[in-house]
């Protein structure tokens, strides 16, 4: 491990380290590694999956265009290194943990990737290193998985090793709010820990908001995504209310958003997915069980989110009933299956549950998604995307995700269109990116 500091012109006392290891080269770790490398730091990108490392080297990864350009440039430089060898984290001045924190089938935290990464980090930790946990997890994760075992090894936190939490704020596919333009929250175990970690995080973004502890940083991330989950649940509920009055919920939302204070627009949709909103609030609810603290609003919001795919399927069924048809034997194409526009990610996508529910009701289901050639819903049956869709081949088009830059004019030739995004328009689908 080197102790050299790179002079970068940042404020005095905040010079950046010369080498940083990033554990986990997924949707967070890879853009993080690219951001650090662009800042002049030697990066050691570690991922235990050789297939992922090979995909990165081949450029076959889901990134925004700017990050693809950075990757193409970085791959040819000795200062950007990819490996499956976890021992190499011992060579770096600082180490960031960027592994996924998902849920098991029972909506309980799946901590295996995180605990494994932290165990390795503790085992290879060297005096003088700065260790930063960026994965979203329960309050106290940093203390339990890093601080306590490091002390058991004989380290003195804040003196010979430095530990902090700075949860990621990466929104995949978002070209408006990039990592460099998004402030980061940072909390160290000690003031010195915070100062050392800030040297690393300021390479990724100049806007760093420090808090008094890792626990405060961890709670901040849980609050952020729980806030979004509650408000999305409310937006979906208002969409159902508006339907009863034959009012466009998007028109109402846009009108309410003209108020310059006290309102933030959230839009209804077919459900939520991805790595944050369906998962993070459950980390909070899981932890609250041990404290005998209740969170009825959060619990109800997450129940409503889980139930959203059923509501979408019921809407299809009601639409068919209104024209004298049933679900059995009806040919339904789900348009878009990723959890959000512009990405290839189908993790926790509501489209998976929607497809399963439609099949259970007897529909003949296919899908069209130009970014996802094959798909395996939870029923285990592999599906292939319709390559050249013809609206006349389907009785119903269920709009789930609309990707920018693709032609959806064919949808107008379907006999029935059910827009679960509430904002689909074939005429401007090439230009518009629904939130």
Automatic annotation (TrEMBL):
Q: Which SMART domains match?
A: UDPG_MGDP_dh_C
**Is the Oxidoreductase keyword given for this protein?**
yes
Cite the UDP-glucose/GDP-mannose dehydrogenase C-terminal domain residue spans from the record: 333-426
Keyword annotations from UniProtKB, A to Z = NAD, Oxidoreductase
The record, for InterPro entries, names: 6-PGluconate_DH-like_C_sf, NAD(P)-bd_dom_sf, UDP-Glc/GDP-Man, UDP-Glc/GDP-Man_DH_C, UDP-Glc/GDP-Man_DH_C_sf, UDP-Glc/GDP-Man_DH_dimer, UDP-Glc/GDP-Man_DH_N, UDP_ManNAc/GlcNAc_DH
The family classification in the record reads: Belongs to the UDP-glucose/GDP-mannose dehydrogenase family.
Matching entries from NCBIfam families are given as:
NDP-sugDHase (TIGR03026)
The name under which this protein is listed is Nucleotide sugar dehydrogenase
Organism (species): Kibdelosporangium banguiense
